Amino acid sequence: MQHIGGRWRWRRCPLRRRWDVLDAWLGLLTALALILGVPAVGLSAGLATYGSQRTERAEQLAERRTLTGRLLEPVPADPSTTGFAAGIDRVPAKVRWTGPDGRRHTGTVDVEPGTRKGAAVPVWTHPDGRLADPPMTTAQAADDGVAAGLGTGMALGLAVLAVRWGGRRYLDRVRLAGWEREWARIGPRWGRHHI
């Protein structure tokens, strides 16, 4: 029972072949890569993505400004009456605002359901007053970092497991071929012995 679990591959044994040692090393390296390498690579990819997204957010905040616009149409409290799904927290509506150059602009921005006509709403614009998307939030940057870290870690983990599977299949074929060669050499002599 002491040979259960593949430990016999690490000990000197007449049944152990060179391919068994390679298989044991491949298993050990796979385990180390899954336990240490995959989390480290996933964490570093997630942190790098989070850092770049935070930099992009800072750039967006520096180049965009928020102005106050006025709602040109009432927004129903129930978004499903205008064709949107019930329960959403923002719906598009027409808004008018005055740019930094004094020109009036009109565009569509997302507002809360139930907002009345003429209500003041925040509008994100470029420096020339053109409508811009709101800058990325820190939560969005964190979500992107987590997604990148998990995606990279899972992809690396699958690649490690694929290498292990392919290596194991190759070693199994080599082992079987070796056993067949040995049996072809020993098998004919086996039948000569009688009890």
TrEMBL record:
Q: Which UniProt keywords apply?
A: Membrane, Transmembrane, Transmembrane helix
| Transmembrane helix as UniProt keyword | yes
Give the superkingdom in one word.
Answer: Bacteria
Q: Membrane-spanning residues where?
A: 21-42, 145-165
Q: InterPro entries per the record?
A: MT1774/Rv1733c-like
What is the protein name for this chain?
Proline rich protein membrane protein
The protein's organism comes out as Streptomyces olivaceiscleroticus
Q: Cite the source lineage.
A: Bacteria, Bacillati, Actinomycetota, Actinomycetes, Kitasatosporales
